[in-house]
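Most newcomers find our protein records easier to grasp once they have seen one. A learned vocabulary of local backbone shapes supplies the integers on the structure line. Here is such a record, shown just as it appears in the course material:
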Amino acid sequence: MLKKITLLLVILGILSCEEIIEVDDISEEEIIIIAPTDNAVIQADSINFFWEVLEFGESYQLRIATPNFETPQQIVEDTLITTNNFTLLLPANNYQWQVKAINSAYQTQFQTQNLTVEE
């Protein structure tokens, strides 16, 4: 009888732990870009990239390429951060930037924007 009770407690313990470590699926969520908006033309070299916080997103991957990701001449930035903004000095050029949210089990699709920095 004691073996049956012990076995039952072990099974209940395992099932309880599964619910504790369950991670929310964010793969169908979408990052909302705040700035710079798509096709923005900016006359400053310090650019603040900013997007809405995604619930259950633990970090964000931000990538910047010139002129774009289809035919990149250079990947200017590829970073993983825990905040919803990032500031970077960029010389005059055409860029494409993208961001996605990540948690321990899932990630969203990248949201991509075009950007032109002028002198």
About this structure: The CA atoms of residues 60 and 81 lie 5 Å apart.
